[in-house]
Amino acid sequence: MGDFRQILPVVRGGRQEDIVHEAIKTSELWGLFTALRLTINMRVECIAMNNPERRDELRSYSDWLLQVGE
To answer: Across the 70 residues of the chain, what is the mean pLDDT of every consecutive 10-residue run?
Structure first.
């Protein structure tokens, strides 16, 4: 589903409160969802496997990316 801080609904002419109110996390359906947490950035991991000399650097970058969304 993505990072909810980056994906907001479009509310034409809406104020900030209107946009937040329309977000999926405020929906009555939110309780039916299962939130999954990503633990491996597969895009960076594939690049790291093909670049052994930069593997540590890329894995550190991958870890940093995952922490940004928390």
So the answer is: 66 86 81 82 83 86 77
Crossing angle of the two packed helices 42-50 and 55-68, in degrees rounded to 10: 170
The pLDDT assigned to 70 comes to 59
Closest CA to 69 of 8, 3, 7: 3
Return all residues near 47 (Cβ < 8 A) that are at least 6 apart: 58
Cα–Cα distance measured from residue 65 to residue 58, given in angstroms and rounded to the nearest whole number: 10
Using CA atoms, how far residue 2 sits from 23, 24, 52, 57, in Å, is 13, 12, 29, 25
Q: Tokens 């359906």, residue?
A: 29
